[in-house]
Amino acid sequence: MGLLTFLPGRTRVKICGLRTPADIDAAVAAGVDGVGFVFYPPSPRAVTPNIAAQLISRLPVGVDAVGLLVNATDEEFAAIKAIAPISLWQFHGDETPERCLELSAGQPWMKAARVGAQFAYEDFSLQYRDANAFLLDALVEGYGGGGVPFDWQGIPQTWVSENAPRVVLSGGLNTHNVGEAIARLHPCAVDVSSGVEISRGVKDPALMAEFVKAVRAADEKSSP
Predict the structure, then answer these.
(1) 75: exposed, middle or buried (C-beta count within 10 Å: 0-12, 13-18, 19+)?
(2) pLDDT for 32-62, tens place per residue?
(3) Is residue 224 part of a domain?
(4) Average pLDDT over residues 186-206
(5) Of 48, 168, 193, 211, which residue is 20 to 30 A from 69 by alpha carbon distance?
């Protein structure tokens, strides 16, 4: 299966920023399709390649290990790839399409978009047309959405309909608003991090389980 296996009526779920064996076990028990490992040292959710490799070893077949990078150097990327068996890359910085293709080297990848009021959806999807997915996140200072939602109503309906199999919705999602997001956009997947934390960088197993349940409830409600 995996995070980017598009199936209408079955929204995939990724939980990002996992750092401990307990995080992994709780996410798997909740029924996620992918878990994200942050390779960006300034982040409170950052992990080393060695820690990521240990955590990935706990994942069952079918759950993607997503490596989040922010403007990684060749050396940084090589150190990660040599140790951590990442199955899907997430480029969250200012990487050009050419850089994404160079680093992914044939592996699946998605490009994060920092969505502000004037975001050009058509231009973005054309520029990164080789991406396996487009991750829509909020435009805030720095990298990452900071747990802030953006205006989903501003996403052109024609664009999201055409690209739904490749849309991963992020940015301020939680158990209370993910149902509305799914009902409005029907993305391939949703991505949460701070929305399932009890403090910055600290995941809560109960919130992870509740989030996945909210996604499944939204799927049932939106199915014919």
Answers:
(1) exposed
(2) 999 999 999 999 999 999 999 999 999 999 9
(3) no
(4) 95
(5) 211
Active site (catalytic) residues: 16, 137
User: Is this prediction's pTM over 0.70?
Assistant: yes
**Distance of alpha carbon 116 from alpha carbon 60, whole angstroms:** 36
Helix (H, G, I), strand (E, B) or coil at 88: strand
- 7 domain-assigned: no
Q: Which residue segment(s) compose the domain that 29 sits in? A: 12-217
Tokens standing for 136? 């829509």
Structural domain count, the chain: 1
- Which range (5-19, 82-96, 112-126) has the least confidence? 112-126
pLDDT interval class at 115 (50, 70, 90):
confident
User: pLDDT by residue (tens digit) across 121-164?
Assistant: 999 999 999 999 999 987 555 544 455 666 777 888 899 889 98
45 secondary structure, DSSP code: T
**DSSP string for residues in 169-224:** E-SS--TTTHHHHHHHH--SEEEESGGGEEETTEE-HHHHHHHHHHHHHHHHHH--
Determine the Cα–Cα distance for residues 3 and 48; give it in Å rounded to an integer: 23
Q: Is residue 93 part of a domain?
A: yes
Angle at which helices 205-222 and 21-30 pack, to 10 degrees?
20
Q: Let me know if residue 222 belongs to a domain.
A: no
For residue 199, CA distances in Å to 158, 173, 202 come to 38, 16, 5
**Residues 75-100, mean pLDDT to the nearest whole number:** 97
CATH number for 167:
3.20.20.70
